[in-house]
Amino acid sequence: MAAGLSAGAFAPSGLRLTSRPASSRESLWRREDGPHLRGAVFVQRQVYPELDGPSFLGPGPLGSPVTDAALDSLAEAGANLASWSGPGPFSETAPFEVDPVIEDHIATWLDRCLTRGLFTTLCLRSGPGRSAFAFHPEESWYPARLYDDSLWRDEDKQAAWIRMVVWTLERFGAHPACAGVLAMEEPNGMDLGRPEVWPRMAREIVGACEGRSLGAPLLLSPDRWARLEEADALREAAGPAPVLITHDYSPWRYTHPNGAAHARFDRKSASQAPARRLGAVGVLEFGAPASAPDLTDYLQHRIDAYEAAGLNWAVFRWTSGWTEYEQAEGGRALSEVPGALAVLRTGFAANTVRPTRS
User: For the structural domain made of 22-348, what CATH number should be given?
Assistant: First the structure.
């Protein structure tokens, strides 16, 4: 990608390529005149050579690498959001200091998105007391020593996580491509028998952010892996200020088939979009296997629901462009399915705002 390429170079003709200053980026999440952000998800984690080998997730430090071609293709399709789910910038173990490698990676990611006219949300997946493998409990493909969910039982690690969220907003929130920082990707304390932890952390995060010039808005997800069913409880705990981010994999039997057999998509079993009483809300993950039947019907149904409710949305997921990884794990890369891509392009065409350099 040429260094001199202007922001929004891939935007369809006729779009208003207007920047959003830091003080008004909250308006990107207004439902009254939304949605404003439509795009796709990229997921990364730290590379462990002893587990991943020399090339499966790339050379590191994070993988799989997101190629320029992958970001270009998302922008060319008309999206204006590349939601990034990856490691937080604080170390997972004491003394919970900033990892300059991850800090540099996030800074570069923001610049890469801006160059292509894409907003991004920084969704903190791992950090003090929580490893990337906490998303894979009871699985055996990685060494057990890499699993860590001790955050939920350790108040020092909880406090460090809260500091990490505030630090991330202060460090990156003013970047014109940053549409928000998600304090924790898919919190799951309730499923681990710690239902009291996340509501308290959410309140403390909101309190720690008050009175600070952060640029981008704070985003919070409900417990139980960002389930909509827990959104009311989170709103009550966190108050009206933060944007709530839910993940929508409804109906579960369709989006997560058990075994080789795929269920047909049943519109009646799909959940309703988050109610307007919840205030500012977005859906930053939804999707199904690329091989699922009725895929275009499913995508159109969910997008229509989000559009009617004024919700920003991001599909899980877009290809990383890293061939070795995608050949093995590309089963949910909907950008590689022509019919699905056509539906997404149509949805992306409604975008009217992109970030620009100030």
Answer: 3.20.20.80
